[in-house]
User: Which sequence fits this backbone?
């Protein structure tokens, strides 16, 4: 199949507009991806024709809504190659998934002195939930350093593991550097140490085929909005034998078998972890997003984005005063950079006035920034619709930054 | 450079951003303030020496974008020799200028007005207003001798 990015771009209504008199070059997909017509239409259609609450009414609309909602679960199961449909828990996003694991599995099965290994490149969403748990029950957090190139070396992971290690929690792809971590190998190290592997897939899920069984992830989570779906919906994958004994995260409707004031019994996973009315329309939207990326093929998307990453790296590298932060051998979808002439926020403002949308700042990874001796970077992040013209616009605008700040 | 970017990045701002004045630790400062913009990581430490109600010396250290560094640098030049009441008045004028509210120029010297007008280019860049006002919020904290100012509190 040939990958026709110009045709694909037509699927994304937001891309065909001008910003400050320039064609929009949206290079902030790492923060949130734009939505294809298929997602927008699926959500509108659902609200126009089939919307009702799920798992409740005997009426037609409730039945339709329930069927469409529950049809997304096996779709996700296949998408990440989980063994059972029951291993797919809907959350409000990656952040909630991390908190869910920390507060249910963590609080139940860990004790004071147990150790959790993190890497220095984690997003705050995979740091703070573990710090909260540490303050609650006294687990110890150990941090694997990152090399100056932005890589996590297996020997450094090994060095952080002790007989007390119970969990290694790490991102599959760094949201700042684009580094692809050796997830399968790190999971293997975890298992050899008798620990579990929890993988933050927020930044990987939209860029590459993910097979949770091949990686042998114990927990894996991602957000819908970075996968061309809506906000407010995310997915937690957990191995069935791990989810089964986990207590509920929140109490409420739709997660119980029976309730009396004396005693309540809870449903089995995944419903045990889905208290209250879920983001129903958003689940429908996520389903449409997954169908959309599958229609293009995750392998094709990955191969195409690699050409964009290589093109951007080639065009940005020679610019005087510009330094790319993160030069791992395996990268995906992200080029972070700093410029001698200008602070990332000034870069971001100048680029914006040329229609180029990037993110500037610490990218919710302050410990990594400190580790690298930086306060902020400018980050261009790519998606399945990123064109070489977007990169050319970025490069031209970066040259304007040099003109202004000299 | 397009005209609207020129409004933001005026020569005066680029110059102060690149070559900040009074950029040092001030030994013997009577008041100190720490300013932090958690959204972008900009940080400044402001040192103020107050002598019988007059800012006899003022300096800062830190890192940030051109707007925040230029604003801090120009602020130190503007306020040296002013009374703390005058400083408060200039702060109010600066704050209102940058947020597009009615301003009162009475009692503020022309030099300060010119500089603040240069900074007020951020009005059209709502997300950057905090860059311009960080040093000034830090000043307020320093005058009250509060330890910390944050753009997310004011």
Assistant:
């Amino acid at each position: 199949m040939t990958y026709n990015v110009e045709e694909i771009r037509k699927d994304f209504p937001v891309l065909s507009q001008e910003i400050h008199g320039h064609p929009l070059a949206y290079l902030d997909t790492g923060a949130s991806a734009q939505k294809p017509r298929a997602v927008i239409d699926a959500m509108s259609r659902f609200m126009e024709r089939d919307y009702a609450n799920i798992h409740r009414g005997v009426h037609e609309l409730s039945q339709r809504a329930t069927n469409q909602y529950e049809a997304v679960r096996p779709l996700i199961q296949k998408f990440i190659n989980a063994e059972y449909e029951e291993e797919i828990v809907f959350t409000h996003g990656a952040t909630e998934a991390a908190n869910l694991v920390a507060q249910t599995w963590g609080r139940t099965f860990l004790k004071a002195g147990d150790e959790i290994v993190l890497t220095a490149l984690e997003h705050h969403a995979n740091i703070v939930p573990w710090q909260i748990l540490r303050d609650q029950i006294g687990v110890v957090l150990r941090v694997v350093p990152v090399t100056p190139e932005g890589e996590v070396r297996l020997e450094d992971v090994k060095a952080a593991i002790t007989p007390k290690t119970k969990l290694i929690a790490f991102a599959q792809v760094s949201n700042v550097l684009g580094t692809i971590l050796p997830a399968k190998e790190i999971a293997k190290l975890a298992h050899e140490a008798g620990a579990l592997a929890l993988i933050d897939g927020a930044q990987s899920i939209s860029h590459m085929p993910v097979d949770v069984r091949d990686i042998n992830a114990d927990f894996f989570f991602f957000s819908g909005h970075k996968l061309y779906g809506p906000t407010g919906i995310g997915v937690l994958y957990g191995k069935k034998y791990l989810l089964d004994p986990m207590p509920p995260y929140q109490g409420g409707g739709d997660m119980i078998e029976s309730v009396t004031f004396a005693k309540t019994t809870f449903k089995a996973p995944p419903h045990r972890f889905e208290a209250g009315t879920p983001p129903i329309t958003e689940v429908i939207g996520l389903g449409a997003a997954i169908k959309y990326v599958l229609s293009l093929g995750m392998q094709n998307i990955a191969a195409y984005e690699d050409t964009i990453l290589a093109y951007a790296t080639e065009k940005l590298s020679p610019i005087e005063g510009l330094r790319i932060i993160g030069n791992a051998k395996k990268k995906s979808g992200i080029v972070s950079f700093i410029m001698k002439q200008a602070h990332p926020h000034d870069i971001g403002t100048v680029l914006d006035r040329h229609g180029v949308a990037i993110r500037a700042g610490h990218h919710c990874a302050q410990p990594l920034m400190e580790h690298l001796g930086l306060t902020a970077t400018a980050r261009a992040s790519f998606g399945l619709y990123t064109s070489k013209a977007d990169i050319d616009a970025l490069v031209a605008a970066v040259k304007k930054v040099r003109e202004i700040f000299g | 450079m397009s005209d609207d970017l020129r409004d933001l990045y005026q020569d005066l701002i680029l110059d102060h951003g690149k070559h900040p004045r009074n950029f040092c630790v001030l030994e013997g400062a009577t008041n100190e303030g720490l300013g932090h913009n958690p959204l972008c990581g900009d940080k400044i430490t402001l040192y103020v020496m107050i002598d019988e109600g007059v800012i006899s010396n003022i300096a800062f250290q830190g890192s940030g974008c051109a707007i925040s560094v230029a604003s801090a640098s120009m602020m130190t030049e503007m306020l040296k020799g002013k009374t703390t009441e005058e400083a408060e008045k200039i702060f109010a004028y600066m704050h209102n200028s940058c947020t597009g509210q009615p301003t009162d120029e009475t009692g503020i010297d022309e030099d300060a007005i010119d500089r603040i007008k240069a900074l007020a280019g951020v009005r059209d860049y709502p997300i950057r207003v905090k860059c311009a006002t960080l040093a000034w919020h830090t000043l307020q904290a320093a005058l009250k001798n509060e330890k910390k100012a944050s753009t997310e509190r004011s």
Q: What stands out?
A: Chain B has one domain: 3-148. The beta strands of chain B are 31-37, 42-51, 54-63, 148-150.
